[in-house]
Amino acid sequence: MNIVCISIGNELLNGEITDTNKRWLGRALHEAGYTLTEAITIGDDSARIRATIEYYIAGGYAIIATGGLGPTGDDITARAVAQAFRLRLVLNDEALVMVRGFFQRMGNPCPPGNEKQALLPQKAQVLENSCGTAPGFFLRHNDIPAFFLPGVPLEMQTMFARQVLPRLRTSVPAQENIPSKTLYTFGISEAELEQRLSRLHFKDQIQLRYRLDGPQVLVRIEALSGGIDALNSAGALIKHELGLFLLGEEPATLPEATASALCHSGLCLALAESCTGGLIAKLLTDQSGSSAFLERSAVTYANSAKRDMLGVSVQVLMQHGAVSRECAAAMASGIRQRAKTDIALAVTGVAGPNGGSAEKPVGTVFIALATAKGTEVRDFTFSGDRAAVRKYTAYAALDWIRRVALQQAPVSRIQ
Amino acid sequence: MNIVCISIGNELLNGEITDTNKRWLGRALHEAGYTLTEAITIGDDSARIRATIEYYIAGGYAIIATGGLGPTGDDITARAVAQAFRLRLVLNDEALVMVRGFFQRMGNPCPPGNEKQALLPQKAQVLENSCGTAPGFFLRHNDIPAFFLPGVPLEMQTMFARQVLPRLRTSVPAQENIPSKTLYTFGISEAELEQRLSRLHFKDQIQLRYRLDGPQVLVRIEALSGGIDALNSAGALIKHELGLFLLGEEPATLPEATASALCHSGLCLALAESCTGGLIAKLLTDQSGSSAFLERSAVTYANSAKRDMLGVSVQVLMQHGAVSRECAAAMASGIRQRAKTDIALAVTGVAGPNGGSAEKPVGTVFIALATAKGTEVRDFTFSGDRAAVRKYTAYAALDWIRRVALQQAPVSRIQ
């Protein structure tokens, strides 16, 4: 059966707040074995509320609506629902007891505005709200359920679990969820990924979906038949095919995968950041336990800081400039020497929007990696605004570190 | 005219990700003088995409749709749109040049999967995507515009500003909005804010709304009558009442306000970060022009880094520990001495989840500020998880820097 979520409220349409209920309900339904078919957001407009509900009644959808049950003048859901269901709006005694009871428990008299919350469509079953004043309610169209809940997330969530899900289960059978898993990758595009995985020639049993998430690409594997075994064997083949492009299974962002690879490798790291201004260190230290591998990061915005903290020579800065292969190399080898770490990574570049030139436009970035074997420099040209250039730079740096750490034999195996 | 946003993608319905595009578009339209009438989310289902577009064409809605324009097999928007508009799907030469050009700029050949992105409905006008491979497109139904954009937020946002808004303005007149502005504050709670501003005794002309946004509190001022003059005079009174709690008018986050105050003050800053691991530097260097005031930041996770980069003595580390008033003070004065800056700020603390003790539980943080007058240390106990402790610490640090910079006479006035 199709299920629709209807979110009601002007504040959800003018960008004032994010509608977190939609995602929460989508996930909660998914976990309970249901699929949210669609979600719609409409304003505090009586005619649109009524028309939308009539549209989904006509389509035979189970309805979960949130919002517009409050005590103030712009809370008009109950009246519009009554119209859509061709029912009268009446004072519901059970709801009135609940509303008054809520204020009684708080030790306050019930304001008249709140008594309005007990005006519900005739035939509606009341749904108790243990966390707030607005009772929800429940109706049926041709035995298909329609739930109306307050929009306050905590109230909605509690009522969904206690009041909605048990009633949904009695009228709509849950499906067997399709076994699925998500793999996170970095350094390969969606199109290349699809081309590469098409070589595996999965039959109709396995469906693959691709999604770009920042600079990472996610592969969702769904086993349409064959159950968890089909999923696992497809997953194993795909992981093998992905090689070092694979960050891991959900949740595995590039910073997490890099921190994890560093932890396992036992390598100690120092950073020298110019254009990323601390972003690489921030992404690594977001991870708990990062003190085990990060000795330091020097955020060297000024040339004086590059000289003093990294030992970059005046000659390099004068002759090649702060954004250059030579400076990146000097930064990496300089910080490695001072920090006495196994590896050191340095970045310098033009994040923009200012500071670009014909020779070194905005987006020009040099990344250097110093190890006991020497120092290597790579150059990049990223497009996008300042935030994008900084993010792509940080991700390219993290991926380099991750690959070096993965190629190192794990500490635990060295005995 | 009614406007609908259509978000396309299964991942938006099963709770995998939050649809941030809806809120962003709602706000962007609002700021441009338009009202988003409704927003709908549907899955990667050709029949539903087609039926939804037909429904809104029939209702005379302007359409802004996002998602499903990627290079892989589950990206089916263009074909479904062609069906809804009764148009053939054809290879669009202009789009093909754009897709190939994107790869050319990156120095890569264009994979065949990506060439699929140039298959568009006949009559569609191509919308350039400067940040990604998927071109958008544009059609009309009875002179009403319909825009189809990629779902990747950065690409969508750039295209909305450059491609959508100018075309929307030529076909749909913007409305008069209620004059409103948002003030950003830091360091004062919603309840305190409401109490403080209730002293101003605004009549019904002015409506105030409060909203918590991370550690900042936003005050939205709406002039229900009296127009822009009423708004401005209420705004002036409120700003005066807020004093240093005011960060500014939208958009004015604490990092932006701090960077702006530093720029105006002419003060030069150095940072030493332990538990925030580069976050404070990252937040400041997010702002363009931060090289004017940030000399360096030393991310000193290890004690060796605290000694070497900041000159913290072994005695302080042994006697008081790395998380202590004494260590914070030594870090701040040490980095100030080495960086030769006007002010230096240092943080050290227990971000968690590990590392806490009975005496110094998770959330214990010391922040020190060193100036020519000496060094001051403040201690905090923040609650929440690692990310929350790091964020609150960074915000407390930024606010301290901001207040010091504001109390400094602006450089431009010293002549």
Structure description:
2 copies of one chain form a homodimer. Chain A has 3 domains: 3-171, Molybdenum Cofactor Biosythetic Enzyme, Chain A (3-Layer(aba) Sandwich); 180-249, Alpha-Beta Plaits, CATH 3.30.70.2860; 254-413, Maf protein, CATH 3.90.950. Chain A is α/β, with parallel strands linked by helices and 415 residues long. The first copy, chain A, has helices spanning 20-31, 46-58, 77-84, 93-106, 112-115, 153-171, 190-198, 227-242, 254-265, 279-285, 303-310, 314-320, 325-339, 386-407, and strands spanning 3-8, 38-42, 62-66, 89-91, 119-121, 125-127, 136-141, 144-149, 180-186, 206-213, 216-223, 246-249, 269-273, 294-300, 343-349, 364-371, 374-381. The first copy, chain A, is elongated, with a radius of gyration of 29 Å. A 6-stranded mixed sheet of chain A has the order 2-1-3-8-7-6, with helices on both faces. A 5-stranded mixed sheet of chain A has the order 14-13-15-16-17, with helices on both faces.
